[in-house]
Amino acid sequence: MISSPQVGRLVLEDGRVFEGRSVSPGTRFGEVVFNTSMTGYQEILTDPSYLGQIVVMTQPHIGNYGVQRAVAESRRPWVEGFIARRFTHTPSSHGSEGGLIGFLRQHALPALEGIDTRALVRHLRQSGAMRAVLTSERADIPELLDEIGAYPLMEGRALALDATCDAAYEVAPMEGRGRWHLAVYDFGAKDNIVRSLVDRGARVTVVPATTAASEVLELGVQGVVLSNGPGDPEPLVDVIGQVRSLIASEIPLLGICLGHQLVGLALGARTFKLPFGHHGGNQPVKDLTTGAVLITSQNHGFAVDPDSLPTGCKVSQINLNDGTVEGLEVPGRRLVSVQYHPEAAPGPHEAAVVFDRFLEGVGAS
After folding, report:
1. Annotated catalytic residue: which of 43, 257, 260, 300?
2. Which residues of 153-185 are buried (b: 16+ CB within 10 A; e: fewer)?
3. Does the reported pTM lie above 0.90?
């Protein structure tokens, strides 16, 4: 049984307070962002890219189909807090292994319902993502505001180093050793990146974020994938140096989300923080060569500055909402770099072709 909820609060750094019902108790600080996905809340909760963030869902009813282990994107939730207009207390799905509220409580993840999420999202769109605290335990607003002010900004936080794996490990297709051997740098990788590659016949060695490029090349891999991950890419100076070495080696390379930003930085570009980021499964991306438009899943707060790109590197895809860089290419190089998530779970799946394009380059090596 889920006990009756208690009063909970979201306190923003600009002093605005949203009061609602706490369905999972606790107190956590983080940067507040909103996600426009209609489904996939468990994938969102277990996406390591959300480390350091409190997530607000724009879909008003969350938890309808419960939770199940098979759809998790990592071993545990990574978000700092979770907010919805209403959480479903009794899920309705033949595949459900439990309710969302119980899952949130099991992982001591503070969650709040009953607030006007439309007003909160409009405020974030106008004022930008900001630091906050979600709490069911405290009502001392002035003191909380002081603590929010001391909480670190997302800029300058190398959170990928906290989200990476502790040691390398291998995942292979059930039917054998695989058609290709690939390395995936884990900066907070979603499991579906590895699944997508293995399902296409690859044997994958996942390596920690700090692994030297020389070590990866010594594995004899035929291609390298730079995964998604949380935080600011610019403080990852050593990692950027390793990506630069991988590019120089001319091994086929795929950068996804944070990996895409690291590719841009390794090529000599700069990145910048977006006002409220791109978080959701409905981001339109246009390919500048073909004119085709993909509807993509995205989760990031930083972007590559197109004006800082060096000669020889060009923008291949853009976001149709705000014109930001969604793809990079270097003519003559087997390099695929995309800001969105081709492994999108639960979808949309239009961008999965990115994996096929990358593996074509691997096959040509």
Report:
1. 257
2. ebeebbbbbbbbbeebeebebeeeebebbbbbb
3. yes
